[in-house]
Amino acid sequence: MPRRKVINAQVSPKGSLETLSQVEVHLLSEAGSGSMYQLFRQCALAILNTGAHSDNAKTILDAYKDFEVRIHQQDRGVRLELINAPADAFVDGEMIASTREMLFSALRDIVYTENELGSRRIDLDSSEGLTDYVFHLLRNARALRAGVEPKIVVCWGGHSISDEEYKYTKKVGHELGLRHLDICTGCGPGVMKGPMKGATIGHAKQRTHGGRYLGLTEPGIIAAEAPNPIVNELVILPDIEKRLEAFVRVGHGIIIFPGGAGTAEEFLYLLGILMHPDNQDVPFPLVLTGPKSASAYLQQLNDFVGATLGAAAQERYTIIIDDPEAVAIEMAQGLKQVKQFRRERNDAFHFNWLLKIDERFQHPFEPTHANMANLDLSHKLPPHELAANLRRAFSGIVAGNVKDKGIRLIEEHGPYEIHGDAAVMQPLDKLLKAFVQQHRMKLPGGAAYVPCYRVVQTHAEELAS
Fold it and tell me: What's the CATH number of domain 147-359, 3.40.50.1820, 3.40.50.450, 3.40.1410.10, 3.90.550.10?
């Protein structure tokens, strides 16, 4: 990406921010090279870079190699000193309000996450402990509001979508807003922005005050999907698995729009959870939707699920084509079932404690070449376990496409190899080829997509490159 204008500035939070201790400030600022400092620097740069038409984290980081952020403790709280920051984040020398809010949200989450990891209370070796950790991260970010009836709709989908698909997401968001429903997304561009933008109009028409536009992200992907300015609650989870669990714990229903590998990862994650035997009776409205032009994509995704996970998985969701109002009605009705279910079982409205999430969905997956090649992608596995491994395969593809570390691994060692049964590999290969043909792997207008993977049958017959 071309280098843009830069600016030096000093920024203090508006309103209140939890005061950092001297130890916390030292951890962030010592020598300017500690791991926590580098993590905050990357997230800060992504937030300041909101609006850039690039989904390549490495490109963004390389374009601002001389960007620095220094954290200063003062009596009234924290002050940030920004050096060589993107000038687009400022108007007449003042930082845009939404950017300032998200910048200090990033500081809050990164410091809290690091401190919590050192707490004796945290147990990252058990499923219950991991869920408790996600709960505390969300509570610290003030994302959990007790007593509020279920109305958070999570919207998943791609950042690389057509104008028609983007406009459709705004129409759906508008219908959701008219029904006083709040929006939660991955906080970036495309599908992560459209529903929020539509909902703001619906909320305004209904004079809905305090509408929530919750964005959940994680450090490895934030530079590729910088938060859109509509997000009014930003939470940065420590890794993709915590982020995905946060979505299904805090959300009450999910809408999936057209997308690419990242959307397939999210979809498989949710299906794997819903197909767990302990979750058979748990209501969780799930709708796949898009405009008429996306009907082929939705059918391809549905066919892939049928071929790999079976008809039982297909029964867990509804497909609605080109009807935003019907999507909103379906979701509103589903949320009524969620409300009734949780009342009957005394489960919290603000956090889905009853949903069983198997540990294989919770532990971070490191997409190295060895780990990708060793994934067990076999029909012999129970469907929810196969879904977990397919989710990991797509997670690796996302890393190779847009994450700084993944891109560098591909540059050094070549494409990942994904091995498995022909009965799984053939539908996977077909779906991935469709994503490439439909330009769903990268932002429109960028360089031609070069696959970061090779799909290989167990018997070493190469299907795609």
Answer: 3.40.50.450
